[in-house]
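Supplementary Methods, section 5.1.

A reviewer requested that the exact input to the structure prediction be made available. We therefore reproduce it here, unchanged from the version used in the analyses.
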Amino acid sequence: MNFPEDVRYTREHEWAREQGGVITVGITGYATEQLGDVVFVELPDVGRTLAAGATFGVVEAVKTVSDLYAPIAGEVVEVNGALSDDPAAVNREPYGAGWMLRLRPADPKAFAGLLSSADYAKVVEEQHG
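The structure derived from this sequence is encoded token-by-token as follows.
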């Protein structure tokens, strides 16, 4: 399984992409495969401050319900409202239209501490193996 190299990852299967000082967050393709068809996504309000590793929402799939975790600390500056009408976008385009929220990081250097695609692939291998 290949993971995009333009994003960073967490052990909890979230991804983060830095663009212009804002971090876009979603769940990985591996996570969507494990969950199955996503039917509902609960996201936080804009303006909420998240701690690194804190739960920020829930993704509900046919198979299970799973918490979503903030990859880094920061303030929610945007949520993907389109997911309320089309939660399946998370399955179709986990690294594109299926993004979940955008954060303004409390510490811009925290992004660099997330896993690379190669490191994340090792995590998936360990958990899946």
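The chain has one domain: 9-128. These observations are discussed further in the main text.
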